[in-house]
C-alpha cells in the first residue's frame, strides 16, 4: 500500500528562472507558473493525495513538468516533502525512511549501474545492502536472470552492455530484495521494444504477486494495458482519478460518445489550463 496525503514540495527558483518566469507574466512580481509559486520559489507539488492498493497497478499521468517525478522521488525517500504524509506498506516514510526503503523498489528511465562491476555484482551488491540471505538471493537471482534473459551477460561488466541490457540489470537490482511496493518513473522511456516488454512483464508479475505497483508514463497504451487505477496530475495537483474503467466511463462527449483515454487526458489538461489562465491577474 502507498498512501500519499496532502503532499507539498517547493524548490528555489534561480535568478535566470525568475527572469524567464517574469517574461511570461504580465506582472513582473508574479510567476506565470504553478499556483502557489512566489518570486523566489516554485511549488512543484501542491496538496497531492492518492492511494495505491496491493495487487493493483496505479498509473500517474501528466504532461512534462507536472510534478510526477518529484512525487515519486518523495515516495522513494530521495526527496523530503515540505508537508503532508507518505506511508509505504504501513511505514511512515518521513519518520522512518530506512524502514520504508526496505519495503520499496524504485526504477527510473535514468537508473545508473556501477559500470566497473559485472551484471551479477551490481545485483548482488543491492541484495547485500538489503540484507538478503544467500539462499534467498540465489533463488531470486536465478529466477530474475532467467525471466529477463540476462544469464549469458551475468559476468560482463555493466559498462560493456547495451542500454536495454543495462535496464534489465537495473530491473533485477530493483526487485532482488522482493519489495512489497515497486515504483517505476518513466521506466520504459527511450528503450527498444524488447527491453520495454521486459519491464511491462515485470509490472504484470508484481501485480500477480500481490505487490503494490505505481508507475508514471507518457504512453497511453501502457496505461490501458496495465493500470487498474490512475490519477491525472497537473501543475502539482491531482485533477482526476479513480479506477481505469470508472474514469473511462465518465469520459463521454456532448454527443454521448465515449472518449479515448488520450482524449480525456487532453480534455482535462486543457480545461485546467483554461481555468488557470482565467484566474491569473
Set out the fold topology.
Elements: E1 2-12, H1 15-24, E2 41-52, E3 57-61, H2 68-75, E4 83-88, E5 91-92, H3 97-102, E6 104-108, H4 119-129, H5 134-148, H6 163-175, E7 181-185, H7 193-208, E8 212-216, H8 220-226, E9 229-234, E10 237-243, H9 244-250, H10 261-279
Parallel strand pairs: 3-8, 3-9, 6-7, 7-8
Antiparallel strand pairs: 1-2, 1-4, 4-5, 9-10
Helix pairs in contact: 4-6, 6-7
What does this structure look like?
By secondary structure, this protein is α/β, with parallel strands linked by helices. It has 2 domains: 51-103 and 179-279, P-loop containing nucleotide triphosphate hydrolases (Rossmann fold); 111-178, no CATH class. Helix content is 40%, strand content 23%. The chain is built from 10 helices and 10 strands. It has helices at residues 15-24, 68-75, 97-102, 119-129, 134-148, 163-175, 193-208, 220-226, 244-250, 261-279, and strands spanning 2-12, 41-52, 57-61, 83-88, 91-92, 104-108, 181-185, 212-216, 229-234, 237-243. It has a 6-stranded mixed β-sheet, with helices on both faces. Strands 2-1-4-5 form a 4-stranded antiparallel β-sheet. Strand 9 and strand 10 (237-243) form a beta hairpin. It starts with a strand and ends with a helix. Residues 27-33 have low confidence and may be disordered.
Amino acid at each position: 500500500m502507498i498512501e500519499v496525503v496532502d503532499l507539498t514540495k517547493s524548490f528555489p527558483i534561480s535568478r535566470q528562472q525568475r527572469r524567464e518566469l517574469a517574461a511570461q507574466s504580465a506582472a513582473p512580481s508574479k510567476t506565470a507558473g504553478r499556483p502557489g509559486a512566489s518570486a523566489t520559489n516554485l511549488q512543484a507539488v501542491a496538496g497531492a493525495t492518492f492511494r495505491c492498493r496491493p495487487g493493483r497497478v496505479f498509473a500517474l499521468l501528466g504532461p512534462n513538468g507536472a510534478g510526477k517525478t518529484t512525487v515519486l522521488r518523495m515516495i522513494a525517500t530521495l526527496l523530503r516533502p515540505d508537508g503532508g504524509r507518505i506511508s509505504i506498506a504501513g511505514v511512515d516514510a518521513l519518520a522512518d525512511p530506512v524502514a520504508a526503503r526496505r519495503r520499496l523498489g524504485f526504477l527510473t528511465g535514468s537508473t545508473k549501474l556501477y559500470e566497473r562491476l559485472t551484471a551479477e555484482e551490481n545485483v548482488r551488491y543491492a541484495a547485500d545492502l538489503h540484507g538478503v540471505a544467500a539462499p534467498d538471493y540465489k533463488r531470486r537471482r536465478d529466477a530474475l536472470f532467467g525471466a529477463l534473459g540476462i544469464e549469458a551477460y551475468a559476468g560482463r561488466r555493466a559498462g560493456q552492455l547495451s542500454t536495454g541490457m543495462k535496464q534489465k540489470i537495473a530491473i533485477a537490482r530493483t526487485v532482488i530484495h522482493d519489495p512489497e511496493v515497486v515504483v517505476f518513473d518513466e521506466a520504459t522511456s527511450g528503450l527498444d521494444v524488447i527491453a520495454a516488454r521486459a519491464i511491462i512483464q515485470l509490472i504484470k508479475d508484481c501485480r500477480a504477486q500481490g505487490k503494490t505497483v505505481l508507475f508514471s508514463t507518457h504512453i497511453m497504451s501502457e496505461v490501458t494495458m496495465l493500470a487498474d487505477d490512475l490519477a491525472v496530475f497537473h501543475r502539482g495537483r491531482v485533477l482526476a482519478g479513480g479506477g481505469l474503467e470508472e474514469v473511462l466511463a465518465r469520459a463521454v462527449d456532448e454527443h454521448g460518445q465515449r472518449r479515448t483515454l488520450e482524449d480525456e487526458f487532453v480534455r482535462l489538461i486543457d480545461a485546467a489550463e483554461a481555468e488557470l489562465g482565467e484566474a491569473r491577474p
